[in-house]
Amino acid sequence: MVGLSKKKNVKPEKILEDIEKHLKNIAGKKKEIEKSFSTKLKELESQREVKINSLREKTEIGTLPSEREAIMEEIQNLNTYNKTIEKGFKEGKIDVEIIVELRKELEE
């Protein structure tokens, strides 16, 4: 009977060890994903900032009033994207599809 009780204790312990290993693995992968996502987010923000600066330069050069209005609207939209993404990232509500969509828009 003593040998049986040891086997019963070993099996749950082994299961717990396996679960612990898997949880650590998942936690490690989560950290990698968060780091990668953070890096991508910074890249996108940088791209938007570059685009905002180039648009501001266009307005300073002396464009037509109608063009200036369109440029200012685009700058405002990019600033709104920055704020929305930053807020969503802080709250953990960022959707990957949004990032992909923004990247496509920036590449146009």
What does this structure look like?
With 108 residues, the protein is an all-alpha fold. The protein has one domain (2-107). The chain is built from three helices and no strands. It has helices spanning 2-61, 65-91, 96-107. Helix 1 runs antiparallel to helix 2. It is rod-shaped. This is 206_t:CDS:1.
Q: What is the CA-CA span between the terminal residues?
A: 74 Å
Task: List the domain count as a whole number.
Answer: 1
Instruction: Sum up the overall morphology in one term.
Output: rod-shaped
Secondary-structure content class:
mainly alpha
Task: Compute the CA-based radius of gyration.
Answer: 25 Å
Work out the strand percent.
under 5%
Instruction: Spell out the helices and strands N to C.
Output: HHH
Low-pLDDT regions: 1-5
Number of strands: 0
The total of helices stands at 3
User: What is the average of the pLDDT values?
Assistant: 76
Level of helix content? over 70%
Largest sheet: none
Q: Which quaternary structure do these chains form?
A: single chain
Q: Any chance you could write out the topology, listing elements then pairs?
A:
Blueprint: H1 2-61, H2 65-91, H3 96-107
Helix pairs in contact: 1-2, 1-3
Based on the model shown, name its key terms.
mainly alpha; 92% helix; 108 residues; disordered N terminus
Brief overview:
This protein is mainly alpha-helical. It has one domain. It has helices at residues 2-61, 65-91, 96-107.
